[in-house]
Structure prediction request, 467 residues.
Amino acid sequence: EPTAPHVVVLFGATGDLGRRKLIPGLAHLTLSDLTPDVQVVGTSLEEYDDEGFRDFAKKALDEFSAKPLTDADWKEFAARLHYVPQGAGPEALAKAVKDAEAELGEGVRRLHYLSVPPKAARAVIAMLSAADLVDRSRVVMEKPFGTDLASAVALNAEIHQTFSEDQIFRIDHFLGKEAAQNILAFRFANGLFEPIWNRTFIDHVQIDIPEKLGLDNRAEFYEATGAYKDMVVTHLLQVLAFVAMEPPTALEPRAISEEKNKVFRSLMPIDPQNVVRGQYAGYRDQEGVSPDSDTETFIAMKCEIDNWRWADVPFYLRTGKRLAEGQRIISIAFRQAPKSMFPPGSGVGTQGPDHLTFDLADASKLSLSFYGKRPGPGMRLEKLSMQFATRETQEAEDVLEAYQRLILDAMRGDHTLFTTSEGIESLWERSAALLDDPPLVKPYPQDSWGPNAIHQLVAPHAWRLPF
Ligand code: BG6
Prediction:
């Protein structure tokens, strides 16, 4: 379907995601030739008027836009920004949307973007229904979708009273990253890798997303969410599905979801004994955080996929805030050669197994590291690496930031890179034991790699990071 002119209604417009990603992303899309005409109606709990919201957006763009906007571009975008406080009620929202539509002419569609925490989602859906903003509309739901199985099922039932499934886009922005999509290209467009993509050749997999970032002004959201719900049950496990899935019958949404859902169904229920929860020193002293908070700001865990391809291949996951480095890698460790003819002291195996590493930076990077001979006398081995980076081969401009890519897909009605309720519900089900009985958080120093227990968790393997 060619994209129609759109009114984007941004709920939670003045939140952290709004200023970091959504406003800059909408500015880029609106000013590019990827979308036809767009108008944006922001709404949130703040009592802004249009001018107040434009000031907010200007600051957000100054701070977070990848490329600074020219004055002319800013004027062009600012004229398309409107605001209604959520407290003004459904009629005021309906009026603002109708006014914005009037600027756009024929065939206008609406994209309601719910950048709100799970507990607020139902009220927004009710508001859209009361404002009669359901037809010609699609709705993008931010993660986490619910907070456990029961709440996800209830939220789905509630949304389905107002919107049909084909109108709903459950977003997980990691799937919009070029590098995540490159996993599919890499695995299924080549004959070279798929034959070794199984337990016979792969020893273990790591999905490791440490962040340097802390909470910024998200304490309230984070305190109620924690690293597992913020990152693992969403991004890390979605990425895991791309790594572990069988080849889909076609590159289309239903076929891809089917294979991802099979991975989720084969995931062994997460055993709290295979989980390390951590909390950085100083977390409890922050405003908005309870002084005896048990919210984890760090989590590392071992998962297993109970199917023929992956039996006995551990998948290690780690993510957390205020860690030593910001990285986003998926690392595939291959089995060692069955016998070594190289003398002790030659260096073979001393730098860990050979690896294929996907870097989920916005433009994807790939590297393959393996042992080779060190130049000079004798047979001394060392690890070499082959690198591939998209940016070297393509115009940097071609790279679409994850949110931009996914907003564009939602406008086009393409569900390929979105998650499904069935998949999300399976993941909540697999998480039940951990949610019911989480191990206590262990403290860790800021700028570290997490609590010490992470090493036992992966023994006899070792974390690939730091490089
Ligand atoms: C978000 C989480 O979904 O992803 C944040 O809520 C996290 O806590 C962010 O920092 C990481 O995304 P990215 O694209 O910067 O790796």
